[in-house]
Amino acid sequence: MAKMTVDEKIGQLNLPSSGDITTGQANSSDIGKKIEAGQVGGLFNIKGVEKIKAVQKVAVEKSRMKIPLLFGMDVIHGYNTVFPIPLGVSCIWDMDLVQKSARVAAIEASASGINWTFSPMVDISRDPRWGRISEGSGEDPYLGSKIAAAMVKGYQGRLQANNEILACVKHYALYGAAEAGRDYNTTDMSKVRMYNEYFPPYKAAVDAGAASIMASFNEVDGIPASGSKWLMTDVLRNQWGFKGFVVTDYTGIPEMIAHGMGDLQTVSALAMNAGIDMDMVGEGFLGTLKKSLAEKKVSINEINRACRLILQAKYKLGLFTDPYKFLSTARAEKDVFNAENRQVAREISAESFVLLKNNNNILPLKKSGTIGLIGPLADNTANMYGTWSVAALFDKSVTVLQGLKNALGNDAKILTARGSNFLADSAMEHRYVNVHNPTYKRDPRSEEDMIKEALKVAEKSDVIVATLGEGSEFTGESSSVTDIQIPETQKNLLKALAKTGKPIVLVLFTGRPLALKWEEENIPAILNVWFPGSEAGNSIADVLFGKVNPSGKLSTTFPQNVGQVPLYYAHKNTGRPLAEGKWFEKFRSNYLDVSNDPLYPFGFGLSYTTFNYSDVKLSANTLTKGKSITASVTLSNTGKYVGKEVVQLYIRDLVGSITRPVKELKGFQKVSLKAGESKTISFNISENDLKFYNSELKFVAEPGDFQVFIGTNSRDVKEAAFTLK
After folding, report:
1. Over 70: is that where the pLDDT of 172 sits?
2. DSSP type of residue 134
3. How wide is the angle at C-alpha 235 spanned by C-alphas 232 and 241, nearest 5°?
4. Active-site annotation, residues
5. Over the stretch 266-280, which tens digit does the pLDDT of each residue have?
6. Could you tell me whether strands 245-247 and 212-215 are parallel, antiparallel, or unpaired per DSSP bridges?
7. Where does the chain cross the membrane (predicted)?
8. Does the structure show a pLDDT above 70 at 438?
9. In whole angstroms, what is the distance from residue 458 CA to residue 27 CA?
């Protein structure tokens, strides 16, 4: 740093998007010239060993300081081998598998030259209208914190090997609580809620050693996050001890102009003084910081701080020792989209599926007779992946049809019909579906003709597998909606199929909780597969035919309708609470037209077998500070299949100095039991499990009475009580 000019220091803070340039453009492009001039600290959206090597060569051979570049990418849920969307992965409730998904993603991305991923996204969200709910881990801070830490560890390892990459935790902070579920919108909440409900996953990622943090688009306490010194310095660095660097989101600095914070020079200085270290795409730092320095609007100490943190990250990665550390053509050929990685993806996908309904044990299906496979997602390679699949091989995913064929061989007959498009309106569908993806084609026939064809298939079938729901780009960034039902044209198809009287299994593709009241009342079996990724069809077949017993549990509450949103299990009581199981009572907190109940509660998920929980046993009814007590249940597999159950522990603080939620997740264990087997499942409860941030934002446990709940989801639990002395 002592050898660097101010311009070169500011250059390290600039993160432009290169686009996927060719190797020949590395020198001649505008980006190439900026790199040579020392005006670039890193690039993103470029992939491939040869391309990245050509660009890195410009940095380390032609720029004056020869400082290597960082290469980032939105590797969100896998690289070429794509795992389920993060919301799906969060339903696994197995942190070893969560970490493994990130490990494989890091191995593959680094084999393509990438050394920094803009993941994990750890935003808590309780609003399914928000498109980016698909990218996170759901509504709960405890589960979200465990997943955040596991993902960071999976990506980064010890940051020594050439397959360990920088994680970037996003979006700091509160992005998942945008008003009305509308992307980029205002967020406003009390600090008590921030610290207790929304901050924990960010802090857990920091505690796990996350190397970088990304600022969110929304405002917090009236200031856009990219300009908030309270967020970036007071909380992140001073309270949590974060030692890495902070990058804005795409054009986050210039977007503060539209927020009403000033011109480009003003907002760039605001961001620098707040504690932002790297400017993604906006080039506000590059264009204005030197002028602000001269005018004493920023100090050289702030610029030095940011530059030092960027350089430290490059040292941690080993780029100063070997700028080409991540650029091995041998690894690129061997480590990406191989059979081993795809097998991991297949296993994780099957574990993420949530069985929502299974009347009369329709599932698992028999490998015989005739199966009618119907719906726009039946044979659709493009829409198996879900949003943010930036390196997906769109023609290489296993479709549902192919997966069923692979599982069945000649044992059963499969008849197919498209049945419907995603949406009736072609212009609207164009907005919803990824138009850059050439593998999706709309069917030009009328709705009536498509349903007629589907009914002919249904007539000849013993069972109908209806593959319906959302397309990949129905959720994700800038994909907020006000209607969270299955689109009408698909529902018309489903209603027509239901009238045939044939048994129906709804294989539901979705990136958000949907309002499925009609489906729950009228369709006998519903398997939620989210967007399963590269091995979609194989993993779906594994579960449909019983090779894998589904064990996924919801990480988000499914409402009866959009009018209940936001709906989440860890709500507060009102002064006029409605008694559990009641509806309707005047002058109580309820609706006239629908009960307060969710359609499917947080933590919900069925199995092909059945589980029985004994009553909760406590080792003591009094917990003394500094000690712990044990809460236990006996779990029995009372069905006929081997199965996995996620045993969930919730606690309620009955009296507090501030109001407390009716339940909070405080522990879980995923247990495998053979048919007829029983196990005792125990949880240790200590004072730390009872702590929360009080009105003074002190992290405390308050003496008093507590309820402890253990069960199969947040609603269906056994309970006991204890006192903290």
Report:
1. yes
2. G
3. 95
4. 249
5. 999 999 999 999 999
6. parallel
7. none
8. no
9. 60
